[in-house]
Amino acid sequence: MNATILPEKKNHYPVLLNEIISIITPQYGGTFIDCTFGQGGYTEKILEHPKNKVIAIDRDPESIKTSSNLEKKFGKRFFFENKKFSQVDELELSNENINSVIFDLGFSYTQIKDTTKGLSFNSVGDLNMKMGLNEFSAKDVIHKLDKNELEKIFKFFGGEKDSKKIASKIVKIRETKKIDTQSLVKIIEASKKKKYYKIHVATKIFQSLRIFVNKEISELIFGLINAAKILKPGGTIIVVTFHSIEDKIVKFFFKNLSEKKSISRYMPKTEEKDNLFKLGNKKPIVPSNQELKTNPPSRSAKLRFAIKEKEVLNFEKEILEKFNYLLEIENLSVKL
Question: Which pTM was predicted?
Answer without folding.
Answer: 0.93
